[in-house]
Amino acid sequence: DVLTEVSNEEEAIRAGRLGAKIIGINNRNLRDLSTDLATTETLTPLLPEDALIISESGIYTHQDVLRLAPLADGFLVGSSIMAQQDLTTAVQQLLFGKVKVCGLTS
């Protein structure tokens, strides 16, 4: 299988026309390296409904995951978890949020 990466409207439309089935939406601007999650929000409606959508880059928090979950089938995450010492906890917090239970200590 091939993941076709898109980062703008022209590429998204082209990927759809060419029948891409797995599409990665790159939220990173490759010119200045900034990220904008609105890229996934803007490009997803332009893609085929039956395509598997992966939102790539700029996903740092559980709130980011919640924001994009209705639009994407998966996420490509790197620096936000790789910078953490405890990778298991970092992934859990990214996916499920940080749970604080008052009165309990560990």
From TrEMBL:
Enumerate the catalysed reactions: 1-(2-carboxyphenylamino)-1-deoxy-D-ribulose 5-phosphate + H(+) = (1S,2R)-1-C-(indol-3-yl)glycerol 3-phosphate + CO2 + H2O
One Gene Ontology term of the molecular function aspect: phosphoribosylanthranilate isomerase activity
Locate the Indole-3-glycerol phosphate synthase domain: which residues?
Answer: 1-94
The keyword Chloroplast belongs to this UniProt entry's keyword annotation: no
**What pathway or pathways are given for this protein in its record?**
Amino-acid biosynthesis; L-tryptophan biosynthesis; L-tryptophan from chorismate: step 4/5
| Xref: Pfam families | IGPS
InterPro entries reported for this sequence = Aldolase_TIM, Indole-3-glycerol_P_synth, Indole-3-glycerol_P_synth_dom, RibuloseP-bd_barrel
Keywords, ordered alphabetically: Amino-acid biosynthesis, Aromatic amino acid biosynthesis, Decarboxylase, Isomerase, Lyase, Tryptophan biosynthesis
Q: Does the keyword Lyase apply?
A: yes
Q: What is its EC number?
A: 4.1.1.48
- List GO BP terms, alphabetically: L-tryptophan biosynthetic process
This chain's protein is named: indole-3-glycerol-phosphate synthase
Q: Which organism is it from?
A: Bowmanella dokdonensis
